[in-house]
């Protein structure tokens, strides 16, 4: 596939995305940009020395002009939360980084599709949308794509079936107010209640699904991995690479990613994750799957939590 993907940020997440892309047939050109040029050059040197074991691919450590004609730009830049730092302080710091990046990259790659991975993802996606002036269809945040993968992983473990048989999603912010619309969760075409009964016929000792435990698993997976190994980057890299392949595919796919909402479910002027149809033209539409009244209220609560943070930062 002849495509060019630029990654801004050569930290653990950005470098792992670059490595994962280099092992797949998604991009023929990869550009890695970081304010620390030695770090970017070191990551590229390490990665490119392994590309001789696959079809030829170009991977370079560059600067913004090298991103010209990119099909996709992935932004991962930002700093981790420091001890004693409030969420607002962290958000403002990373928004300020986004302010410095946005005009530089948009100037050279105005037609690219943008995937925002930097945290807090939804607010950074919102900030990029406001700062860039690009059409909103060119912008999406990785949002709950990873949360959804974590959800399906846990459901797969519980039921002992492939994650490919599971259609369940996480909505809302990529954070503590995210939730699972259980009314939209299915396994092999059956609702979870129906599938519980089906499985119980053969596995009498299988405990009923604890939905609160599953949501807790989704919410705490990131912090658990960080506590055990210091950072999370493998799963997020794979999820972002999948988004790249979907954006370059021949037809659209419906996924849970962060996009700007304009009245869908009664939510306005904020980026968060619902179902969106994405493909070669970027974000084509929000797919308004029916939600229960309780689920709609949870979506509003998530949107309001994000808006509270946005109101306290300088865009």
From TrEMBL:
Pathway: Fermentation; pyruvate fermentation to lactate; (S)-lactate from pyruvate: step 1/1. The keyword Cytoplasm applies. It is an enzyme of class 1 (oxidoreductase). The keyword Kinase does not apply. Beta-D-fructose 1,6-bisphosphate binds at residues 152, 167. One of its GO terms (molecular function) is L-lactate dehydrogenase (NAD+) activity. One of its GO terms (cellular component) is cytoplasm. Pfam families: Ldh_1_C, Ldh_1_N. It is found in: Cytoplasm. NAD(+) binds at residues 9-14, 34, 39, 64, 94, 100, 117-119, 142. Residues 4-141 form the Lactate/malate dehydrogenase N-terminal domain. It comes from the Bacteria. Allosterically activated by fructose 1,6-bisphosphate (FBP). Substrate binds at residues 81, 87, 119-122, 147-150, 232. It catalyses: (S)-lactate + NAD(+) = pyruvate + NADH + H(+). The active site is at 174 (proton acceptor). Residues 144-312 form the Lactate/malate dehydrogenase C-terminal domain. Keywords: Allosteric enzyme, Cytoplasm, NAD, Oxidoreductase. One of its GO terms (biological process) is glycolytic process. Transmembrane segments: none annotated. Its EC number is 1.1.1.27. Belongs to the LDH/MDH superfamily. LDH family. Homotetramer. Catalyzes the conversion of lactate to pyruvate. NCBIfam families: L-LDH-NAD, PRK00066.1, PRK06223.1. This is L-lactate dehydrogenase. It comes from Blautia luti.
């Amino acid at each position: 596939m002849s495509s060019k993907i630029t990654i801004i940020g050569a930290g653990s997440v950005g470098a792992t995305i670059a490595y994962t892309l280099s092992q797949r047939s998604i991009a023929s050109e990869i550009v890695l940009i970081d304010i620390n040029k030695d770090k970017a050059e070191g990551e590229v040197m390490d990665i490119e020395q392994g590309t001789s074991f696959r079809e030829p691919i170009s991977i370079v450590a560059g600067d913004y002009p090298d991103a010209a004609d990119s099909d996709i730009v992935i932004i991962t830049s930002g700093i981790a939360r420091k001890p004693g730092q409030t969420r607002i302080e962290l958000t403002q710091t990373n928004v300020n980084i986004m302010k410095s990046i946005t005009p530089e990259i948009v100037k050279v790659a105005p037609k690219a599709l943008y995937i925002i991975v930097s945290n807090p993802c939804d607010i950074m996606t919102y900030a990029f949308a406001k700062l860039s002036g690009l059409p909103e269809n060119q912008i999406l945040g990785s949002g709950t794509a990873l949360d959804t993968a974590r959800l399906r992983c846990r459901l797969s473990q519980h039921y002992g079936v492939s994650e490919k048989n599971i259609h369940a999603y996480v909505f809302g912010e990529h954070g503590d107010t995210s939730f699972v619309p259980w009314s939209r969760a299915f396994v092999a075409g059956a609702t979870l209640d129906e599938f519980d009964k089906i499985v119980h016929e053969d596995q009498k000792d299988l405990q009923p699904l604890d939905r609160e435990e599953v949501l807790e698993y989704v919410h705490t997976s990131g912090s658990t991995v960080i506590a055990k190994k210091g950072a999370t980057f493998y799963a997020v890299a794979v999820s972002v690479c999948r988004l790249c392949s979907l954006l370059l595919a021949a037809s659209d796919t419906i996924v849970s990613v962060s996009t700007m909402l304009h009245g869908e479910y009664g939510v306005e002027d904020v980026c968060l994750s619902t179902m969106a149809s994405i493909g070669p033209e970027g974000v084509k539409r929000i797919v308004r799957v029916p939600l229960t009244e309780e689920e709609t209220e949870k979506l509003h609560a998530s949107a309001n939590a994000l808006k509270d943070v946005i109101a306290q930062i300088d865009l």
